[in-house]
Write a structure and sequence with these properties.
4-stranded mixed beta sheet; 4 strands; 83 residues; alpha+beta; Glutaredoxin; 3 helices
Amino acid sequence: MKQIKVLGSGCRNCEITANAITKAAEQAGVAIELEKVTDIAAIMGYGVMSTPGVVIDGTVVHSGGVPGPDQIRTWLQATERQA
């Protein structure tokens, strides 16, 4: 199971990002555990200065702006190959 964190204040773009990741994982058949991180200190601990940020298994893969569906699918496929 992949540990995915969406970093952000809970703004609309953060919600869109979380929903897009959930949908892409369901379509790809990839099991994920999604956590929304809203604590500013925790977000800055990842070095993310622009939200939403996305962390997969402890690695920051995105920050700033809503990622596209193709980008999300690429992340999920890459992390599945590493498993």
